[in-house]
Amino acid sequence: MRSSATYLGIDIGSASLKLVELRSAAGVPELVTYGIAELPLAEPGSTRPSIEAIGDTLAALYKEMNASAKKCYSALSSDEIFTSIISLPKLKKKEFMPVVEEEAAKLLSRPVNEMVLDPQILEDASDTTTQRVLLVAAPKELVERYEAIFKRAKLELLGLETEGFALVRSLVGRDRVGVCVVDFGASTTDITVIADGTPYFNRSLTLGGRNLTLAMRDILGLSLEDAEQVKRDVGLQASEHGQPPDVLLKIIKPIAEEIRYTLQLFREQTGRNVEKIILSGGSAMLAGFAEYLETTLKMRTYIGDPWARVRYPLELKSLLELSASRYGVAVGLAMRPLKP
């Protein structure tokens, strides 16, 4: 029997806003509607658009996509939050948060009372005296900003989580092996190592597709629009000399090295290996990017498909495939309340 309850996943990126509405159909997530809207430029003296601008853009997209759900989930970017895995003694429920707060105070650069803490036990420690806990902490003013955006759009924000957990649902599913998800966005690249369905490591670089476009513009003397088109057409495909364009490699190489370092760190701390790299984000579609990482890091690398775990009309298949990498977080967020 098809459920009438639908939920929204809203991904607020640095350059665009993605909306996905899903419902559960016989236990399978089913697409209701989806859409994307470019965000306005940041206000003078700020690095991001105003609450009013984002809220109004979301409200307009909601109306344009003929969405019906009012309950939604959103995610905080890895570069906006603090995450760490801590080891705690096995505790009673009433003792858990005070001890977490005490440990957080040792790790955070800001007072605990200025942060929202979200600790999650990673594994059952019933046969030991310790347990590992994934500690996620976000500044209160950041959480309040998101709440204000959704209030402006007249939507009910049910929960916030890290982008990593959303990408686990949409791109990894029940796969228990070590996986590295690289979310290559417009302004940042987030690297998340996932094992046993849990994000273990998160690293963020302030390098993204926009850096590639600006580099092409400056080196080739093109307009921003033409530079974007050349980037899309040429990408990292080898020239007649057998190498990708140097101007792009200067930006891509640090990303590859950061991925390599993250994989090594995970191996040293857990004794486990990552078996594959899954790409997400709008810039993941850069021609030759997946092939470059696979060759450089000697690891299977491919662009993830968040729609693979979603039922949708067959006539939408080609359109969804074209934009698949941009919707990983939004799909994963909308999947959160749906029963598998």
* Order of helix and strand elements from N to C terminus: EEEHEEHEEHEHEEEHHHEHEHH
Strand order of the largest sheet: 3-2-1-4-8
Q: What about the largest sheet? A: 5 strands, mixed
**Poorly predicted runs:** none
Mean pLDDT: 89
Q: State the separation between the terminal residues, measured CA to CA.
A: 15 Å
Rg over alpha carbons: 20 Å
Q: Quick one: CATH superfamily of the largest domain?
A: ATPase, nucleotide binding domain
Shape: globular
Q: What is the CATH top level name of the largest domain?
A: Alpha Beta
Number of domains: 3
Query: Helical percent range?
Result: 25-40%
Question: Could you please say which CATH topology of the largest domain applies here?
Answer: Nucleotidyltransferase, domain 5
Structural class: alpha/beta
Count of helical regions = 10
β-sheet strand percentage: 25-35%
Number of E strands: 13
Please give the CATH architecture of the largest domain.
Answer: 2-Layer Sandwich
